[in-house]
Amino acid sequence: MRTAALLVPALAVLLSACGGPQSMLGGGGSSAAAIETLWWAMFWAAVAIFALVLFLAAVGGWRGRRAAPGTLMVAAGGLVLPVALLSVLLVYSVSLGERLATATERAQLRIEVEGLQWWWRVEYPGAPGAVLANEIRLPVGVQVEIVLGSPDVIHSLWIPGLAGKQDMTPGRKAHLALLAEKPGVYRGQCAEFCGAQHALMALYVVAMPPAEFDAWLARQAEPAPTSEDALLQRGREVFIEAGCGACHTVRGTPAKGRLGPDLTHVGGRLSIGAGLLPANIGAIQGWIADAQNHKPGNLMPSFNRLSGPDLNAVGAWLASLE
């Protein structure tokens, strides 16, 4: 009973890792499926070796100390079998790595992703002006090449539902192939410790039908929409007057900063703060007023000096930029 009481919580913890938004099982792309197959092969190989060891231990215990295992049994179970299994897995994993690495040669779309402390800048070279933060959108069924870079420290992009990990080393460019085979939202994460807020450096990958993606990308390349609404106009004024344009870009306004995320179409994104908060009015207002409380140490200062009406106006305006 005591053993069962210990095993049940342990199994519950293990099984909880088999699902969720960042599970590597049941992915949405060919790369993730290939990595999942490799994982299962390694898992069952480990299970086979473990079962063999238990079997031999049981046989040895049953026969007693006098019946020592023969040289052939030791050589076969302790050397030949592990070497054979590990050699097969090594060849399989190396060939799979080569195949995934060369998949970028067939890419039909190129996206540039830059890892910073602690967020992601995403640019589409084929659509000048289309710049996102913490979100990658791509068409279903199209091979995509992600060009990765970092200006500060080593980061690592990991989108378990679509691909494996790829390190991002300052001064170098890395490449990652993505092919989403079904629409959906896939969560990614920085998988290399990069500072105090490393755990809060997530992003979302949105796989869209090709026609929807083309229409979306065309909208992203356009400047921020204008409005005749008095509240939204006041929000635009507050944004400029508060000096937000020194760090952020909003195309169609005097804001041209590159230090922080491009906010031209921030209202159409799934999140702000690198997956930390939803991109709605309340969350945007909370982030502006107290960014350092939400993510201490990030480069965004807390603008708690704004009055309530001004904070409401700038939050409404940013949320309207879809």
Quick structural gist:
With 322 residues, the chain is of the alpha+beta class. It is built from 7 helices and 12 strands. Helix 2 runs antiparallel to helix 3 (71-101) and helix 5 crosses helix 7 (308-319).
Overview of this protein structure:
The chain contains 7 helices and 12 strands. With 322 residues, the protein is an alpha+beta fold. The chain has 3 domains: 24-103; 106-220, Immunoglobulin-like, CATH 2.60.40; 230-319, Cupredoxins -  blue copper proteins (Immunoglobulin-like). A hairpin with a 7-residue loop joins strand 2 and strand 3 (131-133). Helix 6 (281-294) packs across helix 7 (308-319). The model has no long low-confidence stretch (mean pLDDT 86).
Task: Summarize the helices and strands and which ones pair or pack.
Blueprint: H1 2-16, H2 30-63, H3 71-101, E1 109-116, E2 119-123, E3 131-133, E4 135-139, E5 144-149, E6 155-158, E7 166-168, E8 174-178, E9 184-190, E10 202-208, H4 210-220, H5 230-241, E11 271-272, E12 277-278, H6 281-294, H7 308-319
Helix pairs in contact: 2-3, 5-7, 6-7
